[in-house]
From TrEMBL:
This is Putative 4-hydroxy-4-methyl-2-oxoglutarate aldolase. Signal peptide: none annotated. Homotrimer. Catalyzes the aldol cleavage of 4-hydroxy-4-methyl-2-oxoglutarate (HMG) into 2 molecules of pyruvate. Also contains a secondary oxaloacetate (OAA) decarboxylase activity due to the common pyruvate enolate transition state formed following C-C bond cleavage in the retro-aldol and decarboxylation reactions. NCBIfam families: PRK06201.1 (NF004850). InterPro entries: RraA/RraA-like, RraA/RraA-like_sf. It comes from the Bacteria. Its EC number is 4.1.1.112, 4.1.3.17. Belongs to the class II aldolase/RraA-like family. The lineage of its organism: Bacteria, Bacillati, Bacillota, Bacilli, Bacillales. Its cofactor is a divalent metal cation. It catalyses: 4-hydroxy-4-methyl-2-oxoglutarate = 2 pyruvate; oxaloacetate + H(+) = pyruvate + CO2.
């Protein structure tokens, strides 16, 4: 029986890899724009890697108390290649929940990245690794391993709800969460925005002008 506070849900419905891979060339800012400028994690969730990082994959969610990462270790064993482990540690500031051993194990298992609203440690090693890691700062103080928490329930990370199987995308700006039921629409609309923005940049350089109808309309209204 699943007991609230210690649920471990093994079955995750994942979107097809071909659909998830189509998010690779997309910028998080444009993805967030098509979701009403919502569903971007707040600025506290920062890349711990070198600039140029890109994270794309399917969410496995973990909820833990802010000092205890035992459930993260359970989730590492359950995750499949291409999964991203997204951890809700209640935004704790006191203990690092992820370190380099966890990251090496994740890489060896083909896990696509880790996102947590807690600090990490072993940050120099993680910075040099090819595993994208997003976190809320760093501290040498390590986690306890006592065991409570949930895997694959709905969590909140960086003020955004995350469900197992949602598409997670990260770049140098931060992380966005695409609800799995909206993935195709978000993909199509983001591709359109990217084309529009490329056309705007070309026009700016070609003409020296930036035609912003919305601004004219706004000035009109406030007159
Ligand atoms: O002790 C832990 O679980 C975190 C850590 O430092 C590591 O994974 O290297
Ligand atoms: Mg360590």
């Amino acid at each position: 029986m699943n007991v609230l506070g210690s649920n471990i849900i093994k079955d995750v419905e994942r979107l097809p890899k071909e659909l998830i891979n189509k998010f690779v060339p997309l910028a998080t800012a444009n993805i967030s724009d098509v979701m009403g400028r919502f569903r971007a994690m707040d600025f506290t969730i920062q890349s711990m890697n070198k600039p140029g990082v890109h994270l794309v994959g399917s969410a496995i969610t973990v909820r833990i108390h802010p000092t205890d990462n035992a459930m993260v270790h359970r989730a590492l064993d359950m995750a499949q290649p291409g999964d991203i482990i997204v951890i809700d540690a209640f935004g704790g500031r006191e203990n690092a929940i992820v370190g380099e051993l966890i990251c090496h194990y994740a890489m060896a298992r083909g896990i696509a990245g880790i996102v947590t609203n807690s600090p990490i440690r072993d940050s120099l090693a993680i910075r040099e690794m090819d595993l994208p890691v997003y976190a809320r700062g760093k501290t040498p103080r390590g986690p306890l391993k006592e065991g409570s928490g949930e895997i694959n329930t709905t969590i909140s990370c960086g003020t955004v709800p995350v469900n197992p199987g949602d598409i997670i995308v990260g770049d140098d700006d931060g992380v966005v969460v695409v609800p799995k039921q909206d993935a195709l629409t978000v993909l199509e609309q983001t591709l359109l925005i990217q084309q529009e923005e490329s056309a705007i940049i070309k026009e700016i350089y070609a003409t020296g002008e930036w035609n912003r109808k919305w601004l004219n309309n706004l000035l009109h209204k406030t007159k």
